[in-house]
Input
Amino acid sequence: MKNTKLTKLILSALFLAFSYVLPFFTGQIPEIGAMLCPMHIPVLLCGYLCGPLWGMAIGFIAPLFRSLTLGMPPLFPSALCMAFELLAYGGISGLMHKILPDKKPFIYCSLLIAMVAGRVIWGCAMVLFVGISGGQFTFAAFIAGAVTNAIPGIILQILLVPALVMILQNQNIFKKRD
Output
């Protein structure tokens, strides 16, 4: 598949739709549904397949669009902070995948770099937005929100995203350097 502008636009729209719909499915698993971070996977894939700019755009739009149309996640501070987190996920995964060597281990490297950076940016946004509202976002709250509560989602992302990227590359559905 050629990575033309139209193809990237269509794929990005598809990833936006997935990020909108996937939380409906994971929400049916009360114990861990939200912990699976269902919006993150399409945004990460968008970064890999469409590049950093499209990944950033879809990452920023997805939580805000879902919040404004469905009320979930709540707009302030959750969806706003998620918008910056997912912007980083899409942008950094795409950028790292583009500049790192074209070898399978580097798919994992780009994913881990994006995940860590996104979570740090989410924490910074939470400190800022919770502080604006007069609250306090502690380091313990950061660890709980960015790591402890997200362990199932982190595992799912590490297992699923590189596998999908490798399958799509091996099947020549998209080329890394396009």
Notes: The domain at 5-170 is CATH 1.10.1760.20 (Arp2/3 complex 21 kDa subunit ARPC3). Helices lie at 5-26, 40-50, 52-70, 75-99, 104-132, 139-146, 151-170.
